[in-house]
Amino acid sequence: MLMTRTFEDILAWQKAHELVIKIYKITRTFPETEKFGLCQQFQRAAVSIAANIAEGYKKLGKADKLRFFNISQGSLKECRYYCILSKGLTYIDENTFHNLVSEIQNTSFMLNAYIKGVVCNSYIKD
Questions:
Q1: Which residues of 44-56 are buried (b: 16+ CB within 10 A; e: fewer)?
Q2: Contact 38, 30 (CB under 8 A)
Q3: Where are the beta strands (DSSP E) in 1-126?
């Protein structure tokens, strides 16, 4: 049985939320010309990770929950690409790149663990 009272109790959501904050802070340093380009796309993808975990949490059916969690995983991969692009454009340095990619991987790992819990439990507490 999953013992959460709210989506905020999910460790994967907590990591995703931290990632959103970091991405917002990092993209503030990007060139002004990227304000409506890469910055907006990067931020949107990051927000999508946490938002879809939150939305999926409250869905009643297992398949519906998993669909939202899968969207979160896709957004994690999208953010990974934006890290690669940001590094290639020299908007972030090597250290920032590795830190972000590591956080993306950790968030993905935690979300996968949560997904396995949802799949393996026939009862899901809402």
A1: ebbbbbbbbbbbb
A2: yes
A3: none
Give the chain's radius of gyration (CA, Å): 15
Please state the domain extents for the chain. Answer: 16-120
User: How many Cα atoms occupy the beta-carbon half-sphere of 45 within 13 Å?
Assistant: 20
And the tokens for 34? 């990227």
* Token pair of 83 as six digits: 């890290």
Using alpha carbons, list the distances in angstroms from residue 114 to 9, 24, 38, 56, 83: 11, 25, 30, 12, 25
pLDDT along the chain (126 residues), means of 10: 78 97 98 96 98 94 94 98 98 98 97 90 50
Q: Tell me: domain 16-120, CATH 1.20.1440.60, correct?
A: yes
- Two tokens, residue 6: 């709210």
Listed residue (26, 7, 33) closest to 101, CA to CA: 26
Q: Residue 114: exposed, middle, or buried by beta-carbon count in 10 A (0-12, 13-18, 19+)? A: buried
